[in-house]
Amino acid sequence: MGDKMTKRISKGLLTGIAVATAIGGLAAPAFAQRDPAYAAARSAGQVGEKMDGYLGIVVAETSDLRRLVNDINIKRRAVYAERAKANNATLEEYALTAGCQAIAATSPGEKYQAPDGSWQTRTSAPPIRDSRCP
After folding, report:
1. Three-class HEC string of the chain
2. Averaged in consecutive runs of 10 residues, what is the pLDDT profile of the chain (134 residues)?
3. What pLDDT sits at residue 16?
């Protein structure tokens, strides 16, 4: 089995995970949205969605912002681990797929991380996504 076969299997696995993520929803953003501090930080462009499925700090870090992001990311990791196991995927594969979905779900004005690592502000155009996204 060569590189093409591995890429095809990986792309197929990520597509399957994407379907499971879409059906199961992203629990992390759902419970995070209940936190007014998260909603305020997101709308102010202080935090953004990263390609690896976790939340990142876009501006100068404060202890409150770090605490908020760490809390959300710990919860996301727990959800990703559980769902990855249920989908016979690795944590990293599931998190990447969740990151692809979270970035796709951003609204204009919100921040997200582009594949080159730069922070972008979502416009009305589709976000720049990683080529590995299903």
Report:
1. CCHHHHHHHHHHHHHHHHHHHHHHCCHHHHHHCCCHHHHHHHHCCCEEECCCCCEEECCCCCHHHHHHHHHHHHHHHHHHHHHHHHCCCCHHHHHHHHHHHHHHCCCCCCEEECCCCCEEECCCCCCCCCCCCC
2. 48 51 48 78 96 97 97 95 94 95 95 97 95 90
3. 52
Among 104, 54, 57, CA closest to 81: 54
> Would you kindly state where each structural domain of the chain is located, as residue ranges?
3-121
